[in-house]
Amino acid sequence: MSPVQTDVLVIGCGIAGASAALRLAQDTQRQVTLVTRTAELEESNSRYAQGGIVTLGEDDSPDLIVKDVLAAGAGLSLPSAAQILAEEGPELVKEIIIETAGGTFDHTPQGELAFGREAAHSRPRILHVGDATGKAIIQALIAALQKRPNVRIVPSATAVDLITFSHHARDPLTVYEPITCHGAYLFERAQRTVHRYLARATVLATGGLGRIYRHTTNPQGARGDGLAMAFRAGARVINAEYVQFHPTALAIADGEGFLISEAVRGEGGRLLTPDGRHFMAEYAPEWGDLAPRDIVARAIHHEMVEHGYPHVLLDIRSALSPDRIQERFPTIYARCLDLGVDITRQPIPVVPAAHYFCGGVWTDDWGRTTIQNLYAVGEVACTGVHGANRLASTSLLEGLVWGDRAARDIIARGPVPIAKAETVPIWEEEGLEEEADPALIWRDMRTIQHTMWHYVGLVRSGRRLARALRDLNHLKEEIDGFYRSTKLNDSLIGLRHSIQAALIVAEAAQHNRVSRGCHYRDDTKGTAPI
Ligand SMILES: Cc1cc2nc3c(=O)[nH]c(=O)nc-3n(C[C@H](O)[C@H](O)[C@H](O)COP(=O)(O)OP(=O)(O)OC[C@H]3O[C@@H](n4cnc5c(N)ncnc54)[C@H](O)[C@@H]3O)c2cc1C
Prior knowledge:
By secondary structure, this protein is α/β, with parallel strands linked by helices. 36% of the residues lie in helices and 16% in strands. The model has no long low-confidence stretch (mean pLDDT 95).
């Protein structure tokens, strides 16, 4: 079958991919193909973002934003990247989300934009739409994309591998050329087959990897797909040990992993032990409940391990009236009520959970990776903004800024040739008759998640990491064999990506013996100076 050809292939439809596609589509002569593995276009981490997106608040400045980003990043954030974020971000929120896509944010009764405050921000500066900001933003961006005649949106298509010479070229001499990306192999669920998508430029925007952990706030699709594909293709990956754990995910059966936004503490919510002790002042006297995420998450973990608590409590009752709680946190209120907890009358049981991947595919200021014609944007990428720990509400902004920057770079460099169909082999599926066994996929995925949670989690040690690597390497052999001998489906592709992503994180964690930000080892003395 002949390949699909397009000027730009964007893999992933969250805020980063959608922003890139929107800018690229401004030139109606350019064909943009936007693919996502889910049937529903909105489904992504972006959709579940609650707290909001950073902009310039009152009495605020880009320099203050940079200062806060660098402080949270624990000495590992790249100052120039933070500067780009702070200087370009607020303007892009206005231009892309509000003006181009028609998105709106909450306003004060006086008609001004309402700025929320979140942990480790020195100013109130978070734009929000109740507590469902991501959903509102992503719906606006997708609606805008659907109006662009030169954007083809392909749902239910899972990227299996990037097409790179020298991996996939028929000509052996391409091995002497720099690695170049020519698109991706995509498994299309409707036809149950893998197609070649050839592109002049490819933008990887596949998001994070929370789902490789047993407890996570991330939805099903955050499996590290893009990280694994880029790594296999030979891209440079950095800072993979820095997985941020959100301190407060719901700890109620059936509602596990549902995020209780940082904004709840921003509005005065206090963390308490089940017997009512306020403990954060002991761990972070300066910040208390509003300390950076890694400190709060480890404090909760410590309290739970030390005293055998199954969870701690987050109490918003003493800070806000019942009406205000319902008005400010309608989604959290409704979800908890569904599960039997009325947060206007009871504290919320919470535990830490894997939340955000600070590392990723290395990119420069323009989202370029070390592979030619391959860009990475959003959570799959590592621009350096987040360093060893991400500041709340900066990742939507980073996706927006670098999605836009990658698009502008593609536009600026003009057209590059597209690979000829005959130089790219079709996907070999012949002889694969056996259907993948869902029980095996489920079990293997669970093994990855438990291994990562217990041995590569909030508190790490050389011994635990060595065990994790042994177990994961063994499992990878099994999964590779399974993958080669069975018909493909989305879950099997995800399993193969997940084991690769898990190994990348575990290896990085083992190599780095210095505790810093959200990478914490209890077997090495001291923490990195900040
Ligand atoms: C519960 C929750 C709350 C959050 N709250 C906030 C917040 O308030 N503020 C903030 O700034 N950040 C927040 N974050 C983080 C933020 O939402 C994410 O970092 C950000 O949305 C990532 O955007 P992205 O475009 O990179 O990836 P995503 O939004 O995750 O999009 C990834 C896209 O890639 C597609 N994809 C994945 N794999 C494949 C594949 N193999 N083939 C094809 N398509 C694929 C997915 O279907 C999806 O369309 C939150 C995250 C969570 C989980």
